[in-house]
Each structure stands twice: as C-alpha cells, then as structure tokens.
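User: For my dataset I need records formatted as: sequence, then structure tokens, nothing else. Please produce one.
Assistant:
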Amino acid sequence: MDNEQKLKDLVKQKYSEIALQDKATNAASCCGAGGCSTEVYNIMGDDYTHLEGYHADADLGLGCGLPTEFAQIRPGDTVIDLGSGAGNDCFVARAQTGATGKVIGIDFTEAMIEKARANADKLGFNNVEFRLGDIENIPVAGSVADVIVSNCVLNLVPNKRKVMSEIFRVLKTGGHFSISDIVLTGTLPPNLRQAAEMYAGCVSGAVMKEDYLAAIEEAGFDSVTLQKEKPIIIPDDILKNYLNADELASFKSNPPSIYSITVFGKKPACCTPGSGCC
C-alpha cells in the first residue's frame, strides 16, 4: 500500500507540473516537466486536430490513442472521462453528445481540474463538469454513464482491477467504454520496469496485454474488442538513460514489446460480476 501511494504521489506531482505548461513546452522539455528526457510523454500521442470539438488549449499531448473517436457516443449520452487532464477528450465527447448530453471529467490532480474548468468556462459549456477524485474510487453514483472513455491513464493507477470494477459500477446496464492505454507483449528490461520516471510516462506501469484484457473480463464486461493497436517505439535518447549499451542492443534487437491499444467493453444487460446469469 505504501508503494502504491508513492506511485500516486509521483504521478500527481509530475502531472501538476505539466498542467502549468503549454503543449509546446511539454513537448520540448524533459518528460514534460523537466529532468530526464525529451520525448517520454509525447512519443505515444495521436493527432486530435481533425476531430470535431477539438480545442488546442485543452490538448497537452499526453494521450496514447483517440478513444473518443471509437466510443460510439450518441446525442444525449452521459459520458465520463477518467483522467480528464485539461479537458481534451471531454470537449470532443461534448461535440458528440450535443447540448442535451452531459460530460463529466475526473482527475486527481488539482492543477489539471483548474485548467479544465477554465477551458470549459472559456468555451461557455454548461454541460461539461470536472470533478476532483481518484479513479479507483470514482466520485460518481452507480449506473450513471452511457459511455466511459479514458486516454493513457490506467497505466498510472497501481490497482487496475479496482478501476475496472469501478467502471462497471458507474456504467448503466448496456453501457460501454472505449479506453486507450499502454500494454506489454514482452518483458521490459529491469531498469525500465523499475524507473519511476518511466512509470509517470506510462511505460513501466504497463501490464501484459493478456492480463489487461483478463481484468476487463473479470470485472464482468462482455463484447470486449480491440478497436486499434499500434507499437510504441521508445527513442534511443530515452532508452540510454536507463539501459547500458548491451541492454540497449538487446532491447532493440527484439520485436516491439510495448503497444498502445484502444479497447471496447460493454456492461451486459442482465449480469453482475460473477453471477453467471448470461
């Protein structure tokens, strides 16, 4: 438990620093907040600029996919974004829900919540709200959301199974999620796995792909589908901070072991976890 809290404190510190910088500064500085490398936060991101609802001020370049593009959001839906940052995915989701829908962003970093609320006020959105909270204990009542999205956030949470159970609780019966995240298909070198900085950059916090998908199914979801998958290539200037020459050569000689996935899951119409009713 102490180690889990230390990891959470690390993430909160780093993302508080990032919230106070613009996207260009994050992309140009070491790890987005100073101190280790030039690319660890932005090597994974996809381009949002073609999506309706995109607002540059809300895009800090911290994602690893485009979950809102795959989330099948309909007008009038209630959408929750876990780890909402400066509001990027929330504003894209709002363009799809329209004025009759509702979007709730959850983030445990005070500076991010403040930035997101300022962006929402500037845009004049009265159906987008941001709540401070830990996604292991989502500050929302049960059976509220039609859709849940999240972009490269579960890697930052030590207890991923707890988050999956919370997603199940908060979704309405028949509701679904679309989540982009980082998974592994091979073993990371020990120095990468142990690096706290790489944890805050979403890499060393990754779990094996099969374990990630198993956690989703164990939570009670069905129709689990991979909507997108792409390899993540970590540049040499980052790897050299953690691996010696032999370790680097070995790591690069093997097929990519780090992937960004976007995964879909649905809360069944008749089941609770473990009931077997379906």
